[in-house]
Amino acid sequence: MSRSSIDLTAFFKLSYGLYIVSAGVGEKKSGCVVNTVTQVTAVPERLAVTVNKDNYTCELIQQSGFFVATVLTQDAGMDLIGLFGFRSGRDEDKFSQVDEAVDGNGMPYVLNHAAALFSCKVCQTVDLGTHLMFIGDVTEARHLADGEVLTYAYYHAVKKGGTPKNAPSYKGEETAAPKEEPASDKKTVWRCTICGYLAEMEELPADFICPICKKDASFFVKV
Ligand SMILES: Cc1cc2nc3c(=O)[nH]c(=O)nc-3n(C[C@H](O)[C@H](O)[C@H](O)COP(=O)(O)O)c2cc1C
Known about the structure:
- There is one protein chain.
- By secondary structure, the protein is of the alpha+beta class.
- It folds into 2 domains: 3-152, Pnp Oxidase, Chain A; 179-223, Rubrerythrin, domain 2 (Single Sheet).
- Helix content is 14%, strand content 34%.
- It has helices at residues 8-11, 56-64, 78-86, 152-157, 173-176; strands spanning 19-25, 28-34, 38-41, 46-52, 66-72, 100-102, 108-110, 114-127, 131-143, 189-192, 198-200, 220-222.
- The protein has a 7-stranded antiparallel sheet with strand order 2-1-5-8-9-4-3. Strands 11-10-12 form a 3-stranded antiparallel sheet, with no helix packed on it. Strands 6-7 form a two-stranded antiparallel ribbon.
- It is globular, with a radius of gyration of 18 Å.
- The protein starts with 7 loop residues before the first helix and ends with a strand.
- Flavin mononucleotide binds at residues 18, 30, 32-36, 50-52, 55-57, 81, 85-90, 155, 161, 163-164, 166-168.
């Protein structure tokens, strides 16, 4: 099978939701945005999630043997997605910046913009090279809030969010997110190539830091 038989746009036809998967061991805790939560069996109730080996969350799921998956609601802001999807719990305590709760297995999870919660005990781990797929028995499932849930399509089309390299669905810079049109002909807009944040200003200051993913001005392009 040659690479020419792989049409990257075919992958855009796959549908996903957006979730935060989290875990902790003692004082150490983290969580990350994922689009790879899926129910794999009904009897018993099992979920699978695919987490990059470099993610701190991956290490914590391996060490604890548990994870929590929360389903994000559509109104989740880019500040929450920036914190959990573009920054690492190795560098900062993500949970000190959100409303945190702890499930029956002692795992931390994020209450903000959570539509549902699944507590899982890892029963199988599949090594996929760059990622580990954790399959978990659901030990608790709860409905937390009504309203629309956040899909990956909505995240790209409406929130104009990007996808970092650690996501299994990353397709390279040009295909990671749709290109943003300038808000108006007169305004100059700068777009963060990492998370998709848009800054509307004539000149981007050299010391500008993206408020979402914390990357510097060199990661911005004029759109
Ligand atoms: C829209 C979106 C989807 C993502 N999907 C995944 C995923 O399915 N698996 C994964 O390992 N990382 C995924 N990521 C990347 C992680 O959220 C990101 O690398 C995070 O900063 C890791 O944090 P940690 O080091 O604290 O675990 C995604 C990020 C975004 C914004």
